Amino acid sequence: MRVSKVQYLFLILSVFISIQSFATNPVFSNIKTSNEQFKFGNFQQGLASALKALELAEKSNIPKDLMHANLQVGVAHYYINQADKPTILKYFYKSLVLAEYLQADSLLPILYHNIGSMYVEHSQVDSAEKYMEKSLQIFLQNKKYSQASRANAVIAEMYLNNPKVVHRSVVFIKNAVQYALLSNDSAAIAFALVKQGLYNYVTKNYKEAIKHFDRVEKIYSFLKNKQGLLYVTRLTAMSYAEQYHPIINKVYDKYYDLRDSIFKEETASQIAEYQTKYATEKKERENKILQQENKIKHQQLNTRNKTIFTLVLLILLIVAFVLWRLNVINLKKKKQEIEALKKIEDERNRISRDLHDNVGSMVSFVNTKIDWIIKNKSIDNELLGDLSLVKDNAKEILEGLRDSIWTLSSVSITNFELVDKLKPYIKSHLLIPYTIQDELIDEIVMNNEVVLALYRSCQEIINNMNKHSGADKVEIRFFNMKDMKLGIEFYDNGVGIQANDCLKENHYGIRNLKARLHEIQAKFEILPVEKGTLIRILI
């Protein structure tokens, strides 16, 4: 038993394209010719015109023309061989991609419908429902009830072809009839009634089926639609055959199989000829275009090479000039820097000499005078204590002065030299038992101001330890690592930061230390330990 195909649906939808054709556009002119050939059953000529339209569209490369031409070629292949699903869908999908890109709202639902119909014919339910649902939504949004009716009819046909789910076709047939009546489109009404008749045919209610087919025949006769009449006449004959003598249908099926095979044999060579001719002309056209493109590319390459050579030469000249100017500027700048450094060095040396000759001599004289007074004058114990205190302070001033002269007079001071300078100071001034770990690895030159600030900071820390730590052990560590010139750690096992007022954040001495080290961009940390205090300086 055979149930009808949806070929008539494609004929109705393909007519839509001809409505949009323009007499001045050869692509649409060939599409119109192709549609006219379909109406008269000249499917091979219809395919030839469709392929010609596609050839012209590919030559012009206009997306709108390509969209319509691909759709028409897909429809043509459907008429000739509905079973050739891959070829038909290939052209439909090409058209769909362009329609979505162009936002061709009028054509999109038709393409969704055609693709869905192909999946209907091959009983691929999920894909069929997906695309048919898309087309239905757009048709109903735009109140295109005629197209909505046909979409429901096609979905119904999918279920009519499957006896297990034939009952699911009822709602779609009902919708198809309802939308057809709303549209007042006789052809849509006929198409919906056909599905109603087919439902009765499949469910073996042949009398009702014949009634519906008779109504459809009257509509097609009024519309003078010969292909529709041919289609419904066959359905009527099938219904009578099943009602009175089912063997007749088997003979019909055999007849149609023979007719189809003869038709396919006759058309296969013609289709191959059209396809070969189309492919050959396309290849020739592509070769011609390729030759033209190669010629243009060769000309463009020559022009580009000349342009590049000129630009490179110009860039080289500009770079050479810029480098020369930069070299002149750098030499001038370097000369100025050398002169400035020399002036700074001269000024350092002058200040060092002045400090040594003037301030140093005066402090030394104070020390000498105090020694003479103590030795040659009769003084009481209270005055002797005051003189000793003055002498000690003068001695400290002299030592600090020598340290300042050392940093000023040295051209460059390394981290090694600073540590070597600090070690004897620690030995002579730290009053608590101590150990020193010297872990310096890399010798690095440091700025004189940085050296002096570090030296003064270490003096301050040592002085605080003597006065406030209450410790009986001190550990001092010198070290450096990658991207660090010098690190100094002071650890004592004394009363610690919580009990030691001198280490609190708001203490005057701590603020001075932080300010001094901040000026040289050093990091100052007081770290928590279980007992005592750990101070770290990083530069």
Features:
five-stranded mixed beta sheet, alpha+beta, single chain, 539 residues, 6% strand, disordered N terminus, two-stranded antiparallel ribbon, Heat Shock Protein 90
Q: Would you kindly provide a written description of the structure presented here, covering whatever features stand out?
A:
With 539 residues, this protein is an alpha+beta fold. The protein has a domain at 412-538: Heat Shock Protein 90, CATH 3.30.565. The protein has helices at 7-19, 26-39, 43-60, 63-80, 85-102, 108-121, 125-141, 145-160, 169-183, 186-202, 206-223, 226-244, 247-376, 381-409, 415-429, 448-469, 508-519, and strands spanning 413-414, 434-439, 445-446, 474-479, 487-492, 523-527, 533-538. The strands form 2 sheets. Strands 2-4-5-7-6 form a 5-stranded mixed beta sheet, with helices on one face. The protein has a two-stranded antiparallel sheet with strand order 1-3. Strand 6 and strand 7 form a beta hairpin. Helix 7 runs antiparallel to helix 8 (145-160), helix 13 (247-376) packs across helix 14 and helix 15 (415-429) packs parallel to helix 16. The longest helix has 130 residues, at 247-376. The radius of gyration is 52 Å and the shape is elongated. Mean pLDDT is 80; it is low at 1-21.
Please give the share of residues in helix.
Answer: over 70%
The CATH class label of the domain at 412-538 is Alpha Beta
Q: Span from first to last CA?
A: 97 Å
At CATH level 2, the architecture of the domain at 412-538 is: 2-Layer Sandwich
